[in-house]
């Protein structure tokens, strides 16, 4: 997952940044003077001592935010005041304000994710809120937009990337309505404010939902004894079950009583139905109205215009093509599920209905995995101790991408567990950037796994290159006195994926912060790291990052074979569930009004072969639809298809440990950042238009 904690001002893109190499003078900390930070024996980079940054107090953060906003506002004021020949300076000034803001803002909002000091975290959360509001205000500055349009009418930017930047800046201004008459601008602001409130209300309703059911012990047959014992009981001795994941999925997966699974799934699919259905349907109307004001036929057209897919027709073709190709594999998996269901019903003395229902799917997927792809995950994780995984991961990335990593001893960090590395090109010794590694959980820390961009790589106004800096923030089990940190294979996959985002940040070589690193089209941003997950399923690379924690012995061959084959478990079913969500999303966002319950049931019928349970509305608890993924859910499947095309075409040909394939990938995909359209980057790497053939081959369907 790629996380954003600050934003590129005067664009509609969310981005990330902070800097240990900024050279502006600060008045926030007058007691601090300039120093140099030694990164390696051969490289010294000057930096301000304030950029040790991880010792900032809550007061420092508050003062720093005010100074950042004041100076940024002043820089924009300078652009808005340009007239006559001075307009020729507009693009270079805009580039510098982007770099300045992106290179300082994470000083103040990133500590909310990692600081051990609650007061600092609280101050940083407030900083994030203030800077978010400030960014929205700056993106609505029509005076600056008008100057940039004037520049574009008179001058030609000096480089192809600058031409692209100007086009994007003008496009982004139009996407917030700065080219429209004031009445329309005001209405768009009203719509944005209303949509923000509705989105918050939708999520709050989900967060506050207290729905609970009570089941007798026999109704939970098949669930683990520990799970059942861990449930609260009422006075009648019945077990309390909520709709939250820790209760929901163990029962849907394990319980052999169909009536229980049915009741639970229907209740979950009805969660917040009365509260959130009208909210989502109002959001659909508002999104359609805003799109119309901005000149787009539908909300989907508006969203996709700034994505790799470009048009709703492209996405519709992609999804319907996938549905058609998945019918036969899904039917085969459902036949297997039905055989298990008939056997289980017979064992329970029940009559089988003769079909697989929505409440059956998780249960029979679980049994299939156990019977066909049995992997002892507890045994397997003994072969993935953190130190060996990390050593292998770093070696693999250095090998395939022709890089050299150097750990910085005694580096200024935010916690003793954190390590800092510098990255160099192995051939030229050119310094590319730095990455922090913060791998273990602690109180108050960001709770998942993500890469936070801390400084965008770009070319500064003096012609020198500003290197990229990022942080890999994870929550892998910490070592104990008698045992090292041991990773499940799924965690190894997460580790490899997130580190891919870090390399994308550092290996990009763009001129402008707008395009640096992972600032690509949003429906492509996960593809490069998804592609790299394949190394966690290939024997040669797995051997490099595994070894028993006691003696370093290799994973037994039979266990390794089971692991590799388990990648294909239930792939048709899981793929088709994603297609249901993607089709539903596109359906409601190509309308002015939508009956969301009916639209979801239609999508479910088309893909899965049966409607959603009657009287339910899954959409009322589908947080993505109110939380920023509207008209974009297809992106999960879209990026996976193209990640498989890259892997199968290049690395299956050259070998997964091939520097030849790695350098091609680094040059064609990582290095351009967002300075080239993703579709063109793929064509450059593949030597042809991308397609879905490799995806179906990887899933075992071709």
CATH topology category name of one domain: Glutathione S-transferase Yfyf (Class Pi), Chain A, domain 2
Q: How much helical structure, as a percent, in the residues?
A: 40-55%
Q: Please state the average pLDDT score.
A: 91
Just name the CATH architecture of one domain.
Up-down Bundle
Q: How many distinct beta strands?
A: 14
Low-confidence stretches: 4-51
Distance between the termini: 29 Å
Widest sheet: strand ordering? 1-11-14-10-9-8
CATH superfamily of one domain: Endopeptidase. Chain P, domain 1
Q: Can you identify the CATH class of one domain?
A: Mainly Alpha
Strand content: 5-15%
- Main β sheet profile: 6 strands, mixed
Q: Strand pairing plus helix content: what structural class?
A: alpha+beta
Number of helices: 27
Query: What integer value in Å does the Rg equal?
Result: 26 Å
- Principal-axis shape equals globular
């Amino acid at each position: 997952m790629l996380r954003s904690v600050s934003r590129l001002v005067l664009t509609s893109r969310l981005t990330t940044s902070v800097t240990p190499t900024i050279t502006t003078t600060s008045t926030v900390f007058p007691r601090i003077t300039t120093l140099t930070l030694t990164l390696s024996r051969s490289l010294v980079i000057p930096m301000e001592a304030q950029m040790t940054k991880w010792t900032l107090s809550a007061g420092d953060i508050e003062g720093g935010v005010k100074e950042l906003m004041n100076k940024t506002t002043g820089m924009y004021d300078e652009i808005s005041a340009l007239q006559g020949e001075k307009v020729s300076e507009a693009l270079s000034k805009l580039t510098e304000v982007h770099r300045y803001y992106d290179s300082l803002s994470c000083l103040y909002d990133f500590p909310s994710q990692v600081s051990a000091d609650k007061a600092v975290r609280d101050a940083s959360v407030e900083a994030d809120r203030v800077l978010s509001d400030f960014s929205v205000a700056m993106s609505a500055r029509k005076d600056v937009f008008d100057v940039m349009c004037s520049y574009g009418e008179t001058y030609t930017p000096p480089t192809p990337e600058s031409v692209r930047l100007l086009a994007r800046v003008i496009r982004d201004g139009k996407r917030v309505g700065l080219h429209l008459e004031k009445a329309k601008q005001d209405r768009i602001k009203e719509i944005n404010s209303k949509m923000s409130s509705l989105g918050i209300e939708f999520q709050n309703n989900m967060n506050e939902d207290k729905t609970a059911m009570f089941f007798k012990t026999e109704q939970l047959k098949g669930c683990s004894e520990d799970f059942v014992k861990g449930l609260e009981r009422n006075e009648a001795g019945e077990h309390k079950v909520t709709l939250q994941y820790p209760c929901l999925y163990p029962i849907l997966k394990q319980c052999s009583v169909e009536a229980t699974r049915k009741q639970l799934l229907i209740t979950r699919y009805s969660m917040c139905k009365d509260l959130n259905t009208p909210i989502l349907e109002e959001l659909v109307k508002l999104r359609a109205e805003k799109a119309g004001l901005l000149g787009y036929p539908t909300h989907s057209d508006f969203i996709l215009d700034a994505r790799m897919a470009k048009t709703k027709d492209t996405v519709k073709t992609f999804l319907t093509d996938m549905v058609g190709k998945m019918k036969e594999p899904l039917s085969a998996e459902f036949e297997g599920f039905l055989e298990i269901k008939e056997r289980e019903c017979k064992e329970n003395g029940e009559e089988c209905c003769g079909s697989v229902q929505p409440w059956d799917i998780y249960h029979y997927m679980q049994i299939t995995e156990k019977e066909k792809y049995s992997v002892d995950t507890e045994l397997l994780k003994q072969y993935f101790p953190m130190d060996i995984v990390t050593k292998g991961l770093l070696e693999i990335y250095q090998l395939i991408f022709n890089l050299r990593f150097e750990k910085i001893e005694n580096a200024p960090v935010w916690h003793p567990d954190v390590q800092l590395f510098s990255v160099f090109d192995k051939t030229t010794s050119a310094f590319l950037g730095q990455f922090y590694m913060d791998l273990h959980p602690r109180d108050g820390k960001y709770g998942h796994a993500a890469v936070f961009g801390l400084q965008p790589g770009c070319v500064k106004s003096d012609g020198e290159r500003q290197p990229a800096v990022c942080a890999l923030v994870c929550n892998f089990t910490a070592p104990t006195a008698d045992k090292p940190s041991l990773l499940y294979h799924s965690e190894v996959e997460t580790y490899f994926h997130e580190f891919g985002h870090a390399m994308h940040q550092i290996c990009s070589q763009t001129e402008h912060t707008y395009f640096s690193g992972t600032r690509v089209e949003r429906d492509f941003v996960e593809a490069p790291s998804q592609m790299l997950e394949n190394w966690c399923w290939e024997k040669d690379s797995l051997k490099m990052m595994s070894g028993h924690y006691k003696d370093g012995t290799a994973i037994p061959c039979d266990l390794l074979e089971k692991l590799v084959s388990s990648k294909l478990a239930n792939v048709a079913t899981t793929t088709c569930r994603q297609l249901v969500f993607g089709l539903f999303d596109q359906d409601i966002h190509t309308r002015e009004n939508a009956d969301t319950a009916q639209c979801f049931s239609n999508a479910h019928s088309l893909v899965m072969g049966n409607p959603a349970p009657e009287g339910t509305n899954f959409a009322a608890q589908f947080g993505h639809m109110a939380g920023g993924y509207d008209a974009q859910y297809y992106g999960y499947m879209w990026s996976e298809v193209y990640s498989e095309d890259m892997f199968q075409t290049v690395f299956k040909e050259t070998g997964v440990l091939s520097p030849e394939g790695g350098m091609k990938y680094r040059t064609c995909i990582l290095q351009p950042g967002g300075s080239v359209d993703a579709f063109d980057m793929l064509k450059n790497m593949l030597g042809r238009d991308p397609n879905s053939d490799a995806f179906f081959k990887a899933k075992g369907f071709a």
